[in-house]
């Protein structure tokens, strides 16, 4: 009997341990192409700065502010183009003590990005469903502290789309911002600003493992559904499906290294088709708005393989 239960434990361990860790940290890479552009969709008007990725409907472009229509860059911060572990990347520098883009010292970088001309015209012209992608690498031994912001899609009605962050309360139904965050120990989450409706709160609170609805700031959605490792490239893809006006049929899905980790349905983005997807919000800093969020040391992260496509 003892032998049997030991054997059972052994079998349970042998099978359960890999399955559990695969669920918590789904870091198995598929191909870079399907990490950025998950299969099962038809893409159009797309762009990617990744090299060696040839997907139908996607044009390779340079990692350049002018090519990618970068606007509203936070002053006093750099996003230099460097070569890092096989990729051409933007370098984010986090000085010790930096925690918020307006603080001192400043850390990370911030801007909005429309993507290639063709993509920007298509999304801002009202594309219903879009995919965004990038790869991120945190330096080896990265000290996560309490968390920081990572890029994601954004949109809304005209200029009201900008600044859908930082605790914004006014005209919240006119904008949305779907960045990601890392939290303590590199836990990943979707950090969203969506119209503050009860339908959205309900849809977002049902996607485990842990969702915190904080209407003063963004909602922390599905915290810990993956964990970022330091010292290696991790690829993120985010699919945004706009809702029809007055309907709760919007969707947000996140893939990490090609593994779907979050898939929220039943969301309300808008009551008018004047509200559109506008591009990506690159806002990269520690925090949080108080110094306990600050980077504990001088450290860096890199962003590469910036991509987008319309799903048709
Ligand atoms: C859309 O309109 C309905 C009914 O007036 C309202 O309850 C809802 O909050 C609005 N949604 C958005 C996203 O503005």
How would you portray this structure in words?
The chain has 312 residues and is mainly beta. The protein has a single domain (4-21, 30-311), classed as Sandwich (Jelly Rolls). The chain is built from four helices and 16 strands. Strands 1, 2, 4, 5, 7, 12, 13, 14 and 16 form a nine-stranded mixed sheet that branches. It has a seven-stranded antiparallel sheet with strand order 3-6-15-8-9-10-11. The longest helix is centred in the first third of the chain and has 23 residues, at 2-24. It binds 2-acetamido-2-deoxy-beta-D-glucopyranose (NAG). 2-acetamido-2-deoxy-beta-D-glucopyranose binds next to loops.
Topology of this structure?
Blueprint: H1 2-24, H2 32-36, E1 43-48, E2 58-60, E3 70-71, E4 81-84, E5 87-94, E6 109-113, H3 117-124, E7 129-138, E8 147-157, E9 175-183, E10 188-193, H4 198-205, E11 219-221, E12 234-241, E13 250-256, E14 259-267, E15 275-284, E16 299-311
Bound molecules: 2-acetamido-2-deoxy-beta-D-glucopyranose.
2-acetamido-2-deoxy-beta-D-glucopyranose binds at residues 173, 195, 197, 246, 268, 270-271.
Summarize the structure.
With 312 residues, this protein is mostly beta strands. The chain contains 4 helices and 16 strands.
């Amino acid at each position: 009997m003892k032998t049997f239960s030991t054997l059972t434990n052994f079998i349970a361990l042998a099978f359960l341990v890999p399955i559990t860790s695969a669920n918590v940290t789904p870091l198995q890479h598929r191909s870079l192409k399907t990490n950025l552009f998950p299969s099962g969709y038809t893409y159009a008007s797309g762009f990617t700065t990744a090299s060696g990725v040839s997907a139908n409907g996607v044009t390779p472009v340079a990692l350049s502010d002018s090519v990618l229509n970068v606007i509203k860059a936070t002053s006093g911060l750099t996003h230099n183009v460097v070569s890092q572990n096989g990729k051409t990347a933007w370098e984010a520098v986090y000085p010790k003590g930096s925690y918020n883009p307006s603080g001192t010292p400043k850390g990370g970088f911030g801007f909005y990005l429309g993507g290639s001309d063709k993509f920007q015209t298509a999304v801002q012209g009202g594309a219903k469903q879009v995919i965004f992608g990038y790869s991120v690498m945190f330096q080896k031994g990265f000290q996560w502290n309490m968390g920081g912001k990572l890029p994601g899609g954004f949109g809304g009605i005209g200029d009201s789309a900008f600044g859908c962050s930082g605790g914004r309360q006014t005209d919240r139904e006119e904008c949305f911002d779907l960045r990601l965050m890392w939290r303590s120990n590199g836990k990943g989450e979707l950090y969203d600003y969506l119209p503050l409706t009860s339908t959205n709160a309900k849809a977002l609170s049902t996607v485990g493992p842990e969702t915190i609805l904080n209407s003063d700031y963004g909602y922390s959605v599905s915290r810990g559904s993956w964990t970022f490792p330091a010292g290696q490239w991790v690829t993120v893809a985010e699919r945004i499906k706009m809702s029809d006006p007055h309907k709760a049929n919007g969707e947000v899905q996140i893939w990490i290294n090609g593994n779907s980790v979050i898939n929220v349905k039943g969301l309300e983005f808008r009551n008018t088709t004047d509200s559109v997807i506008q591009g990506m919000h690159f806002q990269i800093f520690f925090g949080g708005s108080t110094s306990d969020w600050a980077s504990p040391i001088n450290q860096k992260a890199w962003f590469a393989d910036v991509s987008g496509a319309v799903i048709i």
